[in-house]
Design brief:
membrane, 81% helix, DUF1003 domain-containing protein, 5 helices, transmembrane, mainly alpha
């Protein structure tokens, strides 16, 4: 559901989940759209969203900093370069540079695409909700204008 979709599909999604006569609530539309999604896609999307949410925090940054410092201390301080790794920093940089990048980049892109799609759906629902409110506001203004005109006519009759 969160793949790139056109404006027509988003409008159709919002229209399908809008309740007649009530303003459109974007969170309800998003929840209904999630329920339509396949279970595997929901699980993958949930995992991507949460991995990116954790990886984008300072706690994760501090964890990586402690991991690198611990690795360096373990390999050079305690083992004096006689550990299982004859090149003590190559494995560390292979893990951090290669594997983590190959895992995080697609995960971040997936989470970014999902967030953009949620934003598009929310924007469409917001647009429809605000349009409904403007229509109600216009009807109320027209009613007030007609009441003002009637009051003005009554006032003129009274003065004549």
């Amino acid at each position: 559901m969160y793949e790139k979709v056109g404006v027509d599909r988003i409008a159709n999604l919002v229209e399908r989940h809008a309740r007649p006569g009530l303003p459109i609530h974007p969170q309800q539309v998003l929840a209904a759209a999630r329920r339509e999604e396949a279970a595997a896609r929901r699980a993958n999307g949930w995992l991507a969203d949460h991995v990116v949410a954790v990886a984008g925090t300072m706690a994760f940054f501090h964890f990586l900093w402690l991991l690198i410092a611990g690795w360096a201390l373990w390999q050079t301080g305690f083992l004096h370069n006689r550990g299982f790794d004859p090149y003590p920093y190559s494995f560390l940089f292979f893990i951090l540079g290669g594997i983590m990048q190959s895992l995080f980049v697609p995960t971040m892109l997936t989470a970014s695409n999902r967030a953009a799609e949620r934003d598009r759906i929310k924007d469409e629902a917001d647009h429809r909700a605000w349009s409904h409110l403007y229509e109600v506001n216009d009807a109320q203004l027209e009613l007030l204008r007609s009441l003002a005109a009637r009051l003005e006519a009554l006032e003129q009759r009274k003065n004549d």
